[in-house]
Amino acid sequence: ERRTSTRVVEEESYKTRYVWKNIIVFLYLHLAALYGIYLQLTVARYITFGVALMLGFCGGMGITAGAHRLWSHKSYKAKLPLRALLMIFQTLAFQNHIFEWVRDHRVHHKFTDTNADPHNSRRGFFFSHMGWLMTKKHPDVKEKGASVDMSDLEADPVVMFQKKYYGILMPVFCFIIPALIPYFFLGETFSNSWYITSMLRYVLSLHGTWLVNSAAHLWGMKPYDKNISPANNIFVAIYAYGEGWHNYHHVFPWDYKTSEFGTYTTNVTTAFIDFFSKLGLAYDLKTVSEDMIRKRILRTGDGSHEYSRNKREEELRQMLMSDHDHYHDQNMVWGWDDNDMDEEDKKFAKIYNKED
Question: Are 178 and 198 in contact (CB under 8 A)?
């Protein structure tokens, strides 16, 4: 009983350990972004916001196609020119360097909704959205983070180059260059350029990523596994360039599409990867077979998928509920080549544009 009480005290003490530097920075960023909106609505040129949107897209691809689908989950492979481009884009997005981003994200997938999850959604919307960046990490995050295999990133010269020079690269690509583009090339004032293309663009991109951690873990359908918190959220999918199909993604984290569907309208990142695949710069695109998807839906889905509503599938569903097959749950796998990934899943995966 005394140990339990001590544990509660330690937990409460941890929750109140704020990182005031981050809080002050976030306060400035959001005030600056609001001022950027005011400037855009009153005196700034429309094209200035167009530049912000373009740069926001580039930064978004650095996160979604780069740090997330390529480096975190190894859902496809990229040749050096594409990796270099994605590294620059990811630096433009400024969400910590690739190595740290990937480590936190792999821990998130391995230990979802536990104390080891950096943005544990069980602690509420605000914490999982941005509060986790305002408090000290739980000790379990650091402990479990040290157990995640990062040898593939350590062997990638692009990732390690960015990590080494991040203190120089980040301010140049995230803040200085975006502010100088409208100023030098479009005749915009430096003040308008700074508050719109640097501040407003950066804050909007941050919230796009944060919504995947918060809203997509709290609201939406769970057609693939009703027993986990990640959900399919179409609003987040559109805002975050296709990252909102989160129930699917946590079940099959190694699918380069992060969704069952290949439509580009709600998954721009898939279009980006497919484009570079046609150029020969992205290859070994891994995805899940229809049979694997169907069986998982029938076994653990919430009934919202068309497969679940098909009465002819009921017999198969009953069979799957009683008999175990190789299409097992993958909730504790961070992606392709995770040591816990079943070899049968690799065997039945579909790989496009495969290179030896």
Answer: yes
Cα 114 to chain center, whole Å?
18
Q: Which of 137, 130, 128 is nearest to 203 (CA)?
A: 130
Helix (H) or strand (E) holding 78: strand 77-78
Amino acid (1-letter code) at residue 41: L
- Encoded tokens for 322: 């009683």
Out of 57-66, 153-162, 283-292, 343-352, least confident range: 343-352
More confident residue, 103 or 325: 103
| Neighbour count for residue 290 (Cβ, 10 Å) | 11
Q: What is the DSSP string of 194-239?
A: IIIIIIIHHHHHHHHHHHHHTGGGTSSB-SS-TTSS--B-HHHHHH
* Extended strands (E) in the chain: 77-78, 282-283, 285-287, 350-352
pTM of the model as a whole = 0.91
Return the structure tokens found at 160.
């390690």
Which tokens sit at 294?
Answer: 């169907």
Structure tokens at 72: 């975190």
First to last CA, the chain: 58
> Is 80 exceeded by the pLDDT of residue 194?
yes
Q: Contact 333/253 with Cβ under 8 angstroms?
A: yes
The angle at the Cα of 70, spanning 65 to 76, to the nearest 5 degrees, equals 105
In angstroms, the CA 168 to CA 253 distance is: 32
b/e burial code for range 198-207 (CB count within 10 A of at least 16 → b)? bbbbbbbbbe
pLDDT in tens, 127-144: 999 999 999 999 999 999
Burial class (CB in 10 A: 0-12, 13-18, 19+), 308: middle
pLDDT of 178 reads 98
d(CA 182, CA 197): 8
Residue 112 and residue 217: Cα distance in Å, rounded?
Answer: 10
For residue 304, the SS3 value is: coil
Q: Which helix (H) or strand (E) holds 352?
A: strand 350-352
Q: What is the pLDDT of the chain when averaged over all its residues?
A: 90
Name beta bridge partners: 287.
350
Q: Is the pLDDT of residue 321 over 80?
A: no
